[in-house]
Automatic annotation (TrEMBL):
Gene3D superfamilies: Vaccinia Virus protein VP39 (3.40.50.150). InterPro entries: SAM-dependent_MTases_sf. It comes from the Bacteria. Residues 1-22 have a biased composition (Polar residues). This is Methylase. Residues 1-30 are annotated as: Disordered.
Amino acid sequence: MAPRTTLPQSSAWGHPQSASLVGTTTRGTTNPNRLRRMDRWIAAVHGPALRRCADAPVAVDLGYGAAPWTAVELQTRLRTADPRTRVVGIEIEPARVAAAKPYEREGLTFVHGGFEVPVPGQVDLIRAANVLRQYDEGEVAQVWRRLCGRLAPGGLLVEGTCDEIGRRHVWVALGPEGPRTVTFATRLGSLERPSDLAERLPKALIHRNVPGEPVHAFLRDFDRAWAAAAPYASLGARQRWIRTARELAADWPLVDPRGRWRQGEITVTWDALAPNSP
C-alpha cells in the first residue's frame, strides 16, 4: 500500500475531515498514567536538551486520544525538567479537541491536526504513543521523516506502543537525522520474561520478530540473560533485571545510564535492531 498523504473524506467516526490534515483517526483508547514510563524517560534523558532551549521548549502530544489525560500529564512531568515547557495536544478527531478544550491552562493547549503538526515553527519534542499501530509497516518510515522534519536542532521524536494500563512499553527515539535508540520498559513485578514485551513492539519492528531478524535475536538473548539471572530473583525483580542488563550488555550495545536499569528500562541502539532489508 502506498503511504497515506491525506485523510479520507470521513473518519472512522463519521465526521468530515479537512483534506489538509495528514493521518487517520485512532481508536482513542487512553487512561490516566498510561504513559508515565515514557514521560519519565523523556524528562530524564531529554531534559538537558529542553533546558538548553533559548526560548520556552515546545512539546507535542500527537494523537492523545479520546481524553486529554496524557497531554496534561506530559506537561506536568516535563516541567520537572524545565518549568518553561509548553505542551500542545494534537488530535485529528475534532470532537476530541473540543472535549479537551476545558483542560487548557497556561502552557497547555489543544489543536486539531495530524502528522503535519500544525504548530508554528519547529518543536523540541514530539511524543506519538500508540498512534502508528493501525498503519502498515511500509508507511512508518514516511511518517517518521515527516515528524522528524518538524523537529528543531536537538529535538526528539518518541514513537512507540504500550499496553492499556502502562505496564509494558517499547519506543523508538529519533532525532532530526532519524532513529537512534529503542527502549524496553516494564513494571518489573508483572514481568514473567522479557520477550513478553514483544507484543508492544512499535510498528516498525513488531512484524520483524521472526528468526533471522535482529529484534528476534535480541529478545531471545534477553530471555536467556533473564533466565541466567534467576538466582538474583531472591533479591527482588529489580536486582534480577539489573543483572540481566549487565549480561545483555556483553553482546548488545546498550546505551542507557545504568541508573535507568533500576527503573525497569533497557535501551539499545537502533542500528542493532533495525530490520533487515525486505
